[in-house]
Write a structure and sequence with these properties.
This protein has 154 residues and is mainly alpha-helical. The protein has a two-stranded parallel ribbon with strand order 1-2.
């Protein structure tokens, strides 16, 4: 058994846990005070398999949907359904998750780099690059990354 556990993409899981804890604590107040978060149906999550699960979000904000999903997944891991409450669930967060992000946006600033380390799978957009509309073929490597992530996690 290796001393340092890594996920299939080579990320160190201890670092991923620390980042999820840090980002979770920073964002928790947003969902408890600033914005109200209504959660329904999270009890379904506990019965999902450990891999080949895909959540799709039509996001309207930068990372709010990803952070929200991570909070909910962590809470469900601690048997807290349809609520967040006190974020003790961040002590041992759910790390068996990845999210898809545009390659061009994940190196913009320090917070996007933290998100990248906490589980981002970067892909090149086929319709947009550097703020301009483009038309390019799908990168097969990007699809393979997603397949690899799904075969090991969510």
């Amino acid at each position: 058994m290796p001393l340092i556990k890594r996920n299939p993409f080579g990320h160190i899981l201890f670092i991923k846990k620390l980042l999820i804890r840090y980002l979770g604590v920073l964002s928790h107040q947003r969902y408890k005070g600033f914005n109200t978060l209504d959660i329904e149906g999270s009890e379904i999550i506990k019965d999902l398999p450990g891999e080949n699960v895909l959540f799709v979000s039509n996001h309207q904000t930068y990372f709010a949907d990803v952070i929200t999903f991570v909070h909910i997944f962590c809470a469900v891991k601690w048997r807290k359904f349809n609520r967040l409450g006190i974020p003790y669930y961040l002590l041992n967060p759910f790390t068996n998750v990845y999210f898809i992000a545009a390659d061009e946006t994940m190196n913009d600033n320090w917070i996007s780099k933290l998100f990248k380390l906490s589980g981002a799978l970067t892909v090149k957009r086929t319709w947009r690059a550097e703020g301009k509309d483009v038309e390019r073929q799908r990168n097969v490597v990007d699809t393979q990354k997603i397949d690899k992530a799904l075969s090991h996690s969510w």
